[in-house]
Design a protein that fits this description.
The chain is of the alpha+beta class and 307 residues long. It contains 6 helices and 8 strands; from the N terminus they run H-H-H-H-H-E-E-E-E-E-E-H-E-E.
Length: 307
């Protein structure tokens, strides 16, 4: 006997499997998919056919390397051609600039020449000689010649005896030529007050040649003056290498004179003359600095003639 219960169970299981696995595709879709697959294969075959087939016996990598080298050579040739073109253009520009400069310079030279010609003054014509009348010539013939003016008498140099000349030559050979100077002590300023209990200082100046006892002179004393004015001069004889020393003192009564400062001048400083103000040394008797100065004038009167 046939069991309908079992048949229904089989049908339900088949329906379940169909739902799980999905519906079966129609035949048209399957045909289209096959056609697409065939078209892709044909396209791939066509692309592979377009590539150049390398010659027999040469590998593909070698052909690619040769193609790369040829391309690099082409680039280098193009770059060299461009460099040559730029160099030619630059040379042409320089040539044009030089031509313009030469043209401008020639124009300036021509302009300067024209200006010089315009500024050049016209040549002066010599004055025409006026004919002298005959009357003047006759007057010159008749007039007596004027007597010539006597020549002015030249001052005669003082005569030097042979003995004096021998002494001069001897002093020149020994190098002990004496020169006569006029030394003047003009003034001083800024002297310290040495008599602070009795008033200001009473200064005087002592001028002497260092190392020579007889060659010295002393100015007058100016009472109660810190800025004295002496204006006293004397003549002194000095040799090369001697020094002039100016010392200022404060004259006191009943005690030694106070020293107010000094200054020295070398022969090289005075042999052509000197006039000016000099700063005194040791102008202060304390640690405090004292700004004091003396004004002098020295004139060289020339070499002394031995008697």
């Amino acid at each position: 006997p046939f069991c309908f219960k079992g048949l229904s169970t089989i049908r339900a299981g088949a329906q379940h499997c169909k739902e799980e696995m999905g519906a079966v595709q129609p035949k048209c879709c399957a045909t289209q998919e096959v056609q697409n697959t065939a078209g892709d294969a044909a396209t791939e075959t066509k692309l592979l056919g377009d590539q150049p087939i390398p010659p027999v016996g040469k590998p593909l990598w070698l052909a690619e390397a040769e193609e790369y080298v040829a391309l690099q050579k082409q680039k280098e040739a193009e770059q060299a051609r461009r460099i040559q073109q730029l160099a030619a253009e630059r040379a042409e520009e320089e040539r044009k600039e030089k031509e313009l400069e030469d043209k401008k310079k020639s124009e300036e030279d021509a302009k300067s020449k024209d200006d010089a010609k315009k500024k050049k003054p016209p040549a002066k014509k010599p004055p025409a000689k006026t004919p002298t009348p005959k009357l003047d010539e006759e007057a010159k013939k008749v007039a007596p010649a004027a007597p010539a003016a006597p020549a002015p008498e030249t001052a005669k140099a003082p005569e030097i005896s042979a003995e004096q000349q021998q002494k001069i030559d001897a002093t020149r050979e020994s190098g002990d030529i004496k020169f006569e100077f006029e030394v003047k002590c003009v003034s001083a300023r800024g002297l310290r007050d040495a008599d602070w209990l009795e008033g200001t200082s009473d200064p005087y100046c002592l001028c002497e040649a260092v190392g020579k006892v007889k060659s010295k002179f002393k100015t007058k004393t100016v009472s109660n003056k810190e800025n004295p004015v002496w204006n006293q001069a004397a003549k002194m004889q000095l040799c090369r290498g001697d020094k002039l020393k100016f010392s200022i003192f404060d004259q006191d009564t009943g005690k030694a004179d106070d020293f107010l400062g000094y200054v020295e001048l070398n022969f090289d400083q005075i042999h052509i003359g000197y006039e000016g103000e000099l700063a005194l040394k040791d102008a202060s008797d304390t640690a405090a600095k004292q700004e004091a100065y003396i004004k002098v004038r020295v004139r060289n009167l020339g070499a002394c003639v031995p008697k």
